[in-house]
Design a protein that fits this description.
four-stranded parallel β-sheet; alpha/beta; 7 strands; 6 helices; about 20% strand
């Protein structure tokens, strides 16, 4: 199942390994990312990757940065952003929001800057707000994600983006406009 993949242990809040994730190496077959099968101790809807480190940082930090996947989290924590975690896929759930609320009052979403990432952020905003959390959006453009942004622009610029995150209403307006603009770009390409 995990042949030709780099493996990542998935830990629960207590730091115990409950599953594994694998990222495909090269252009092989199968999905780019693959997790262990869900079971009674592992559910993507209840675990945030790296959250055990974010819990330890909660005493020093006011907000948590949520990325998308293993590489984003590794990049953020390698650059000293310990108050970070990542969803396993693009779905942030009510269970995630309630878990975050136990340690933080503010969430800075930093999902991928592509269409699916923007749509996932737009879906996540009301879930987080309904849990009583303040929300801002860290947009990584022109980079595609936090990993690429940190490699290209560094920690200082990333921290500036955290401090100057977009408010959710402004982001939602931008997200609503983006599909129409993309549709027009695609039509022009076809002409």
């Amino acid at each position: 199942m995990f042949r030709n993949r780099i493996m990542f242990p998935i830990l629960n809040r207590k730091g115990r390994t409950v599953a594994f994730g694998g990222r495909r190496l090269g252009d092989g077959y199968g999905p780019k990312y693959l997790n262990s099968a869900e079971n009674r101790i592992f559910s993507k809807h209840t675990i945030l990757y790296g959250f055990q480190t974010a819990i330890a940082a909660a005493e020093e930090e006011k907000s948590i940065v949520i990325g998308e996947g293993y590489m984003d989290l590794i990049a953020m924590q390698t650059h000293g952003i310990r108050n970070s975690a990542a969803v396993l896929g693009t779905a942030l759930t009510e269970e995630h929001a309630n878990m975050i609320r136990n340690f933080y009052s503010h969430v800075c979403l930093s999902l991928d800057s592509d269409g699916p990432g923007i749509r996932a952020a737009a879906r996540s905003i009301p879930i987080l707000q309904n849990a009583g959390l303040q929300v801002s959006i860290l947009h990584t453009s022109p980079a595609k994600d936090p990993d690429e942004f940190l490699q290209t622009y560094g920690e200082e610029e990333f921290r500036k983006r955290i401090e100057n995150g977009l408010d959710p209403e402004r982001f939602l307006v931008r997200a609503a406009d983006a599909p129409e603009e993309e549709f027009i770009r695609q039509m022009i390409k076809k002409m």
